[in-house]
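Why should sequence recovery work at all? Because a backbone constrains its sequence more than one might expect. Tight turns favour small or flexible residues, buried strands favour hydrophobic ones, and helices have their own preferences. The token representation captures these environments compactly. In the example below, the structure is given first.
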């Protein structure tokens, strides 16, 4: 039987990793025994916390797929964020909560919903197929929803996400507030990362019309803590701008406790941040009050103003 590779996006977050595992389990339950979860990059500290909590190993690293390989995409669908040689693979399914960016010349299973997390859609799929959600699967699902919605506080949060977390917390016997904050805080520990690693941990290449950009997001419980290495971060960002020929690099330092983001914006189009948010950058940085979601509070407003 042909193997099916299941994976989320590059610079994987907790949703990408856990959804790959949860989707692989669903495929097995549906009879696709050769489905296997993979990752397209290093595991971050938050995901490490989740896997440690469950005593699970991280999925194997996948560098590229061969022509004709069967793949299932979760938590992404943009080829730019996906595996190398995706264009020659056979995409069986996509389960995602991002905007559609994929075109194929053949039909496939697509499940897209504008919810806060891929795991919320997988929670629905398990219920629709009447597949039992184990304690372990529930913990994986719940962790990712808490991660993507910052404890159900991000504007991306929907009623479906809240409902899923409520049910999953029962199955997993987890106190969501307590576990969730501990998990998010684990993700803010940057001590073991180099500047280059910090700048690529959750980096997404996004073009705001013609403005070639990277938006990287780092969670913290204390913005000042991260700002204490601002000079080093800026030097690293300028290097990336030169190497990649970028017009703009935005580093969002997101305060998970108070739900704000300090942005460091560099590049010739940094003024786009000022225009979009009606703010003034001082020393390349400004606090964006209430901004926590790249998808809802950065991409649309930046694109509109570009
Ligand atoms: Mg993601
Ligand atoms: Mg996600
Ligand atoms: Mg994310």
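From this structural description, the recovered sequence reads:
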């Amino acid at each position: 039987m042909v193997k099916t590779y299941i994976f989320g996006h590059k610079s994987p977050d907790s949703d990408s990793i856990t959804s790959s595992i949860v989707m692989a389990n669903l495929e097995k339950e549906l009879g696709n025994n050769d489905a296997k979860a993979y990752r397209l990059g290093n595991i971050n500290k938050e995901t490490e916390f989740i896997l440690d909590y469950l005593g699970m190993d991280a999925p194997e690293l996948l560098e590229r797929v061969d022509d004709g390989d069967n793949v299932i995409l979760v938590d992404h669908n943009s080829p730019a964020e996906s595996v190398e040689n995706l264009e020659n693979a056979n995409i069986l399914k996509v389960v995602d909560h991002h905007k559609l960016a994929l075109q194929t010349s053949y039909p496939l299973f697509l499940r897209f919903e504008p919810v806060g997390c891929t795991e919320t859609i997988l929670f629905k799929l398990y219920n629709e197929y009447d597949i039992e959600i184990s304690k372990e699967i529930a913990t994986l699902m719940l962790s990712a929803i808490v991660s993507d919605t910052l404890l159900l506080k991000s504007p991306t949060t929907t009623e479906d996400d809240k409902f899923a977390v409520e049910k999953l917390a029962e199955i997993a016997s987890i106190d969501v507030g307590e576990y969730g904050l501990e998990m998010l805080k684990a993700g803010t520990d940057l001590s073991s990362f180099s500047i280059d690693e910090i700048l690529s941990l959750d980096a997404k290449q996004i073009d705001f019309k013609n403005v070639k950009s990277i938006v990287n997001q780092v969670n913290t419980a204390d913005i000042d803590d991260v700002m204490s290495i601002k000079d080093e971060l800026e030097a690293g960002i300028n290097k990336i701008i030169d190497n990649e020929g970028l017009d703009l690099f935005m580093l969002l330092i997101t305060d998970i406790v108070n739900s704000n983001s300090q942005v460091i914006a560099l590049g010739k189009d940094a003024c786009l941040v000022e225009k979009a948010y009606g703010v003034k950058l001082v020393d390349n940085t400004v606090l964006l009050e209430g901004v926590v979601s790249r998808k809802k509070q950065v991409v649309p407003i930046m694109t509109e103003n570009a």
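A few observations help interpret the result. The two ends are 49 Å apart (CA to CA).
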